Amino acid sequence: MVQSELIDPAVKGTLNVLRSCAKAPSVKRVVITASISSVMCHRKPLTPEVVLDETWFSDTVRCEELKVSIGHIL
């Protein structure tokens, strides 16, 4: 049940995105995270101009300040 309802659709969706990115010459890199929790807890404001890339990962110190654990964000 978990495989067919959660894992398979996630893998299929990820592969679809990667295939689309591979076709677009303007795409320079793709950052795949395990979940939104990877980028949710940050000190910088998230504005429309912000590009979420490998430099935009959750700040562990900030998570501790907010008493947020990565497992409890979702």
Automatic annotation (TrEMBL):
Keywords: NADP, Oxidoreductase
MF (Gene Ontology): oxidoreductase activity, acting on the CH-OH group of donors, NAD or NADP as acceptor
Name of the molecule in the record: Tetraketide alpha-pyrone reductase 1
Listed Gene3D superfamilies: NAD(P)-binding Rossmann-like Domain
Domain of life according to the entry: Eukaryota
Entry keyword Oxidoreductase: yes
Alphabetized InterPro entries for the sequence: NAD(P)-bd_dom_sf, NAD(P)_dehydrat-like
